[in-house]
Every structure is written in C-alpha cells, then in structure tokens.
C-alpha cells in the first residue's frame, strides 16, 4: 500500500538537506552510477551491468555502491566542499532494513577531520527531525542537547564485557569465535546494537579498531571513523579520509583487480588528496528513524516487493 505521507516526507527532507549544504557552502555534484570498478570492501557486493557500444562490443561494469571514489577525484581536482544525493546499489542486501537500491547522502570537506563530520551530521539530522515534526510526525527520539559519543572500546566494555576491544584473543574468547573479525561483528550485532536500541538519544560510535578502518586514517591502532546510531540502527558512517597512493592501492588490492580504481590511483601518483573528511548517510534509514517500521515502509516498490510480484504472477 502506498503511503502518500512518505512521499511528502521524502520530498521535504531532500529539500531540507539541500538547503543545509547550500548554507554550508557546498556544491551539489553528480558522478557516474555505472562504473568499471568494484567496491574494495569485502563485505559489499556490486550489482553487475552488462552493456555494449554501437559496434556490439560488450563491457562488464558495475552499479556503484557509493559515489565515494569519483567524489574524491573531484576533491583532488580542487573542490573543497561537495555533496551528492545518489541512488546506490548493493547486491544481496534485501531485508527488513536493507534494499538492493537505496538513497545515500554523501559529502566531503577538505581541510577537516572526522570530528567535523560528526558535527555536520548531527546538525543536519536535527534539521531533518525538526522538519518532520512540522509535518506532523511524532518524534520519539531525544534530540535535546548534543548527541551521545562513545568509543567502540567503551561500548564493548559496557555491553559485551570486553575489557579491551583491541585484544583480539579476548574478543574471540568472549564471542566464542575463532576469527577476530567474526567475533567483533558477532558481539556488535548480538550485544552492542540491541543495547544501543534502548538509548533514546542518537549516538556516535567512534574510534574503531584498525582492522575495521575501511578508508579512514589510523592513529594509535584506532581508525578515525564514526558511525551514527539512532534506535540501534546505523544511519551514517564517516572518516578522516586516507590521502596517499600506497594506502589506496593496498585497500584496492585486497579485493582483487576488478576493485583497483586505475583512474583514481593515476591521480594520486601525481599528488595525494588534500586532508579531508567524508560522510555517507543512509537517507532511507533516516526516514525509518523518523517514521518507524521497516525499509519497505519508507521506500515505495522495494526490490523484495518486485521479486514477489514477478514470482506470484500467474498470467
């Protein structure tokens, strides 16, 4: 069933987000949706795209999972504040809080770090909740004062009885898992996120272990990375970005040759990125935090619904 109120909310918040960034001096940009490179993260799978040119030559590309690397090319070229509201696509991600295609708000600011990203994210999210309230949506999130901030080490100590999240043997023992990465995510999903879902205030979880640094700078074995949680659901992910050629080459090589962004690396060979921070915010997850319910309550015509539509067709 189509809820017209969801369309009204989506429209109002997209306008609010654009106004927020314009007031901050950002430029809205567009980058390719169909790209020749896979996402270098092992936990993220691209949707493949097969196409051909006028001569019939075929190419295997991918729908992007994020506009990240092409936006970073723009930062390299001298743009200092850019944002994008983009449809992105992630294979296998179908469920109550996931959809194969969804809307991402992503932005980069040169000369700043992840603490600035947390500040921007908080202010923008507050703007969106305030706008939703004027539209008649009942807000059951505590937005008074500043958002909470806890390190990953603090929440693992508080909610998972792990004294030191950097102690791989301890994390594996507490989780009952043989691999540190598996143990970390098991405790995050089984212990941490349920506990965070009971907290009324939005919460920044920051300073991740180095092994989960993604594209963030690392200092003292901790990644300058944050995630914003609202009602136990991850809404945004931000970093103090890596800037050097060798760092990115290492990240790309881990996934394999289809993940090696040759164009981006060619630029970095000439000079590094300027110091910058970047944030990716799941727009549909933000709507879920405001409206409540599942992803299908805020995205009309989800992939799951379309799959069932085709499978149920008897014509």
TrEMBL record:
PROSITE patterns referenced in this protein's UniProt entry, alphabetically: AA_TRNA_LIGASE_II (PS50862)
InterPro entries reported for this sequence: Aa-tRNA-synt_II, aa-tRNA-synth_II, aa-tRNA-synth_II/BPL/LPL, Lys-tRNA-synth_II_C
Gene Ontology CC entries for this record: cytosol
GO biological process: lysyl-tRNA aminoacylation
Pfam families: tRNA-synt_2 (PF00152)
Statement: the UniProt record of this protein carries the keyword Zinc-finger: no
Boundaries of every Aminoacyl-transfer RNA synthetases class-II family profile domain copy: 7-300
Transcription keyword on record: no
UniProt keyword list: Aminoacyl-tRNA synthetase, ATP-binding, Ligase, Nucleotide-binding
GO MF term (any one): ATP binding
Superkingdom assignment: Bacteria
Coiled-coil parts of chain: none
Name of this chain's protein: Lysyl-tRNA synthetase, class 2
Organism name: Desulfurobacterium atlanticum
Native organism taxonomy: Bacteria, Pseudomonadati, Aquificota, Aquificia, Desulfurobacteriales
